[in-house]
Design goal:
mainly alpha
């Protein structure tokens, strides 16, 4: 299981790294003004849709159904079920795309009420309409990846999103070279979103699941089996996109403040790196592992999956949270302070990032807890937890956002995330329990201590070099930041070994042996 998680995490890291390059280019082209706010509201809308299906969300809905059909009716019936899901979901999304395109003025007015009465509203409507063709491509792509995940084929799922970012980066570089005005650039980038989605789908078609007989024949059907899948799948997809919906809720409130939408967007991009590496992997791998353990009644395997998942999530998210808080300003300066993105934008974005990072452990905890419900085909409980977290974030944001701007909205998002995690943990404990083994009970406190010590070291080191980085050039800044990150990671890894959490030699040997057995 750990090797599968690392495969997904590696692919997500590659995609997120390219995503940072993409967003750095967007910041340089558009800055943080009205054109950028309009584009990013539209782009966030498309991103939420994509992540409602991707990043483990479709796994939560599709995999338990697919595996149950395969176990009870055989592989042919499971392939036919997957083919019907592929055809039906594609038709539904095309219909939604047409409706949303027609109703886009209303949609943007709801998503960004602060834009109403300003030219920013029309900018956002135009950008969102240009991005809508992506809807036609995301459904088939994610269904194909979900079926491959159910068959433990994670490589293509992990790396296919990379093509989307590569396509966007090429377009952005061309625009930077030609130096067009921000409004024209935003229009071209919006059109490129649909093109990038099409290319991503074409790559998956080359490795189509139906070639291996696991999603065929493809047809449209709304029989009782498909209706049951949709009835349980839609709440699961909404629940899995909880972090993105929290950001959307924050953007709704922040739209009243100029540039606040852009600051929150760029800050959230840093949160999505560890959330993607850990959260996406948890949702992608834990759901099939837990589903098999529950269906076979193997409590030992279930505890093993829960324990190792929680350990790995904690070990990765704790240092990431501390690092993002301590290094928030140098990270934002190096990544985004170019072209139209100013030093004042850096300060505001860094403040939002540090506060958003406080909610990162809660987001990942939800990703670890939710698969226990999805594996039992319970999607309503995670949905209720997500909606309650969004409600808390919006209510708090109305107060904090008015008083503290983008930082207040960021605080409300973190509070909403913790409320969601608390509800999910309480429901799990009172319904079926969430048990971890003795090894995890010993390791988890040690992981927290190692992360805290690493954070103290990183804080002292950053304080020492801060006077230099404040006036240094870009090359020196990125070198110093890279050195701080490398030192923090190395020191944390050494602490984990010293505290007996992990033996790196043994871990590498196990991964190598696992790869040979494959």
């Amino acid at each position: 299981m750990i090797r599968h998680i690392l495969t997904i995490s590696t692919g997500t890291l590659a995609s997120r790294t390219l995503g940072f390059m993409r967003d750095a280019l967007i910041a340089a082209l558009l800055g943080a003004g009205s054109v950028a706010d309009a584009f990013l509201v539209a782009f966030q809308f498309i991103n939420v849709t994509r992540r409602s299906f991707a990043e483990g969300a479709l796994n939560a809905a599709l995999i338990p159904h697919y595996l149950r059909v395969r176990e009870t009716e055989g592989t042919v019936a499971a392939a036919a079920f997957a083919g019907r899901v592929l055809g039906s979901v594609s038709l539904i999304l095309i219909g939604i795309a047409v409706v949303l395109t027609l109703l886009m003025p209303l949609v943007i007015a709801v998503l960004a009420p602060g834009f109403v009465g300003r030219e920013t509203l029309q900018f956002a409507i135009n950008d969102a309409r240009l991005m809508m063709p992506y809807f036609a491509f995301v459904g088939p792509s994610i269904v194909m990846m979900g079926v491959l995940n159910a068959e433990h084929r994670f490589m293509l799922t992990a790396f296919s999103p990379v093509l989307f970012n590569i396509t966007m980066i090429v377009v952005l570089v061309v625009l930077l070279v030609w130096r067009h005005d921000p409004l024209f650039s935003a229009t071209v980038i919006a059109g490129a979103v649909g093109v990038a989605g099409c290319l991503q789908m074409l790559i998956l078609i080359q490795r189509r699941p139906w070639r291996d007989g696991i999603a065929t024949p493809i047809r449209i059907s709304f029989d009782p089996q498909i209706r049951g899948f949709l009835r349980k799948g839609i709440p699961g997809m909404v629940a899995n996109a909880g972090p993105q919906f929290l950001i959307v809720g924050g953007a709704i409130i922040a739209s009243n403040s100029p540039s606040a939408v852009s600051w929150l967007y760029f800050a959230n991009r840093l949160i999505e790196l560890p959330l993607g590496m850990v959260g996406v992997a948890m949702g992608t791998v834990l759901v099939p592992e837990m589903t098999r353990a529950i269906r076979s009644g193997d409590r030992a395997a279930l505890m093993q999956a829960e324990s190792r998942g929680l350990e790995l999530a904690t070990a990765l998210v704790m240092p990431a949270t501390i690092g993002l808080i301590v290094l928030s300003q140098p990270i934002i300066r190096v990544l985004f302070e170019h072209g139209a993105f100013t030093a004042a934008d850096t300060v505001a974005t860094a403040q939002a990032l540090a506060i958003l990072a406080l909610g990162l452990p809660a987001h990942v905890l939800v990703k670890v807890l939710a698969p226990a419900f999805f594996a039992r085909e319970d999607t309503k409980t995670p949905l209720a937890a997500t909606l309650s977290g969004i409600a808390v974030a919006v209510i708090c944001g109305l107060f904090f956002g008015h008083a503290y701007g983008a930082s207040g909205v960021a605080a409300s998002i973190s509070l909403g995330a913790w409320f969601c995690a608390g509800v999910l943990g309480w429901r799990g404990a009172t319904t079926f329990g969430f048990s971890i083994d003795a090894t995890s009970q010993r390791r988890l406190p040690r992981i927290a201590i190692c992360a805290a010590v690493m954070g103290a070291m990183l804080f002292l080191a950053e304080s020492f070099v801060a006077p230099v980085t404040a006036t240094a050039g870009f090359a020196a800044q990125i070198t110093i930041l890279g050195g701080l990150v490398a030192a923090g990671v190395s020191f944390y890894g050494l602490l984990l070994d010293l505290f007996g959490v992990v033996s790196w030699g043994e871990a590498i040997s196990n991964l190598r042996d696992g790869g040979l057995r494959e």
